[in-house]
Amino acid sequence: MKQHRLLIFDQIRRRLRVRLTLLVIVMLAVGLYDQYTEWLGDYWLVWWAAFLVVMIVWVYFVVMMRRASIQVREKFLRLQGPVVGYNISYGRIHSVTSGKMEQHYQFDELRKGERATIKPYYGSTCIFIELSSFPRSIRWRGLWFPRILFSANRRGLICHVEDWMALSRDIESARSHRYARLDNRHPERTLAGEVLAENVKFSGGILDRIR
After folding, report:
1. Angle (nearest 5°) at CA 80 between 75 and 84
2. Around Cβ 42, how many Cβ atoms within 10 Å?
């Protein structure tokens, strides 16, 4: 497996790390101060509950964000987020090309938070992985991944990584090896057939659970 970190997640983590860490320190200090002075009164339990929530947020943005990456695996491409990940069959990949963010989003049209996230990489080269279709499991991608990771006008992933040429080579190499093995085992298998087989397998799993 070859892993390429998604830089926009690093940027989100850097933007929030200091503020969240300071908030954790201040809330902890106030909570400890209350242990000796009872300054919070009857609200001490609410304060510690809020502190727990802030700690969960801190872990997500400061620790878990490091997991976000594109993983080039033997049998599929994996879009790994801080918490969840999605497997994408190589049969779904239509093309892998280099480009710029402006081909997918105009900077002035982005939301304020999105502009702050993408600004360091907006003019740099990225990899666009165009897909023939999204896996069914990725329908909730907006809940776990930023909108700017997906093109606004084409179906696919916009990947800003440290070495875009290495990512492109890794994907193409994995696709070539994958199809070479399929050709040896099933000469009649095509790219469309592989995606169809993936969907049939997915549907079969649902039917098994229903039964």
Report:
1. 115
2. 7
pTM: 0.78
Q: What is the CA radius of gyration of the chain?
A: 22
Q: How many Å apart are CA 126 and CA 134, to the nearest integer?
A: 20
Query: If DSSP states are collapsed to H, E and C, what string results for the chain?
Result: CEEEECHHHHHHHHHHHHHHHHHHHHHHHHHHHHHHHCCCHHHHHHHHHHHHHHHHHHHHHHHHHHHCEEEECCCEEEEECCCCEEEEEHHHEEEEEEECHHHCCCHHHCCHHHHHHHHHHCCCCEEEEEECCCCHHHHHHHHHCCHHHECCCCCEEEECCCCHHHHHHHHHHHHHHHHHHHHHHCCCCCHHHHHHHHHHHHHHHHHHHHC
> With contact defined as beta carbons under 8 Å apart, do 34 and 45 qualify?
no
Euclidean distance between CA atoms 113 and 126, whole angstroms:
20
Residue range 93-138, pLDDT digits in tens: 999 999 999 999 999 989 999 999 999 999 999 999 999 988 887 7
Task: Compute the distance between CA of residue 22 and CA of residue 140 in angstroms, rounded to an integer.
Answer: 32
CA distance 166 to 112: 31
In terms of phi and psi (left: phi > 0; alpha: psi -120 to 50; beta: otherwise), the region of 134 is beta
Cα gap 14→197, rounded to integer Å: 41
